[in-house]
Amino acid sequence: MIYRFRHGIIGPLAIFWLIVTVASVITGAAAWSRFSRRVNASADSDQFRESINHLQQTTWVAGLLGVGAGLFALYFYRVDYSQERARRELLEEKLLAEQAVREKSAFLANMSHEIRSPMNAILGFSELLEPEGLTTKQSQYVRAIRDSGASLLQLINDILDLSKLEAGKVELHPDPTDLRDSCEFLRTVFGQQAVKKSLQLQFEISPDLPRALLLDRLRLRQVMVNLLGNALKFTERGCVKTQVFWQGPESSGTGTLLIDVGDTGIGIAPEKLEEVFQPFVQADSRRTAEREGTGMGLTIVKRVTELMGGRLTVESVVGQGTIFHLRFPDVPVSGLAPVGDHAEPGGAVDFDDFAPATVLAADDNHTNRALMAGIFEGTHHRLLFANNGQEVLDHLKVARPDVILLDIRMPVMDGRTTLVEIRKQASLASLPIIAVTASSEPGEDTELRGQFSAFIRKPFSRQTLFAALAQFLQRASPKGLQRQDLKEVIQPIRVVSPAQAAQWRELALELRRQQATIWTTLCDSLAVNETRAFAHQLFLLSGTAQCGPLATYAATLTTFADSYSIGRMEQHLAAFPKLVESIETSSAQAEPQPV
């Protein structure tokens, strides 16, 4: 505002000053001319006439200086006006660019929603077809549909991620992260792909790496998945190796995290080393079926790495391989327990693991409602449907379901409005309502998780739906666990050496403490995430005490938790006291006998 006032007043003042000065000079010159003629006619003193002439010259000089000052002020006004116009044009261009980014983001978010909705049906129905009695050729067709759908979904996710990065909409959410656990996750994800190509998938972790680092676990996982996926894609023989190093004094709370991802693949030509980080560029232009892609992976990797405060470099030799170097300085060491980093739940799930329940599914898309009916077909659950939020409210007047699956975008009444109307009723305040959406607008995940009981993004799998429902539905009545079942779970433990017995006795004391606290709670709740964390803790204890049976038990329990096999997980948990007893017995038998 001050600048506008100055800019608006300087120009008129400069012009006014120039006019007044010129008028004054002209008027003064005329007056001096008349006065000079009179003096010359009447005065006889040469000295007086000389003084008058000197005064007249001074007046002319002062007038000319005034005119010059006015012209100078007018010049600065013109320069100032030009700069202001240039700044205004730049501001308008900036506003137009920001508007274009917003419109592009809105367009991509809307297109994502419109694509994800049919993708939910494509992937969902193909998943339902897999267990059926199909011929070998039909199974191949179904698998091709699922693989192609997953590839299309990955393309959508890459485009959205790139758009969010360009718009500066990506936020970091650091949490305690165990890189050892993250490497196990990556081994699980890419292990089958490496075996299929007869490649060695290796992970080397520095022994001084802290147990928990404070960084964005999901973004780091995204970076690693892209790098390892590229390495496996462009490697035909040899190995793909990931190395994790830590640099930092033991007394310091921060350090530098170094990650190298190398391969023995085709390599990258020197002139292509910088281009590979540009969007839609691939180092290998030979688009074979195996190497198809958008070329956005490394662009996303570089920008996410820089967003996390890190640096990405690459070195490569054509025909010998490539190494990508990740460097994250000043990474804080966390004193909290690390968050687990496991793959999406896989394997078969049985919805009859839940006690009989009534599920209300609200979705305006007929195909999605048919998919939901197919998922629950043959189970002992009752399924109700609604086309919009108003129909949900009508259902609630008649009966109360155990859980509601509520789509966000619906005609008549959308999901958010429906949630508000339901929560107005005190009797429904605790009713579990799971948001189901195909949208991907920035920040929507956090918003929906804060409003709803849980959140599912389309397209979702049966395992994802099972995991969401597991938070709210009761478990089916446990089947009696016979002694014979315990024998199958817990195999006899051989007698350990006297040197190892002391470690096992300390281990047994810690396991008894775990049994009295964590294990008791898990047997009542059968919470999957907590059970997975319990298994991870047991695995760490087994490594410290070199107890193979405990490591096997922990690995099996993790498998059941990851696959959401609730019945088998419950059975395995029930066998825990028997395992502790076996460890105690084995360590006691190894004690030296008195002479």
Which features does this protein show?
595 residues; alpha/beta; 5-stranded parallel sheet; 12% strand; disordered N terminus
Q: Would you write up a description of this structure?
A:
The chain has 17 helices and twelve strands. It is of the alpha/beta class and 595 residues long. It folds into four domains: 1-170; 175-332, Heat Shock Protein 90; 351-469, Rossmann fold (3-Layer(aba) Sandwich), CATH 3.40.50.2300; 483-589, Up-down Bundle (Four Helix Bundle (Hemerythrin (Met), subunit A)), CATH 1.20.120. A five-stranded mixed β-sheet has the order 2-4-5-7-6, with helices on one face. The radius of gyration is 38 Å and the shape is extended.
Biggest sheet, open or closed, and with what strands and sense?
A: 5 strands, mixed
What proportion of the residues form beta strands (DSSP E)? 5-15%
Number of strands: 12
What's the Cα radius of gyration?
A: 38 Å
Tell me the count of domains. 4
What sequence of helices (H) and strands (E) makes up the elements?
HHHEHEEHEEHEEEHEHEHEHEHHHHHHH
Q: Can you give the helix content as a percent range? A: 55-70%
Shape label: extended
Low-confidence stretches: 1-5, 285-294, 342-347, 479-489
- Across the major sheet, the strand order is 2-4-5-7-6
Q: Provide a count of the helices.
A: 17
Kindly, what is the distance between the CA atoms of the first and last residues, rounded to a whole number of angstroms? 99 Å
Mean pLDDT over the full residue set:
77
Determine the structural class based on helices, strands and strand pairing: alpha/beta
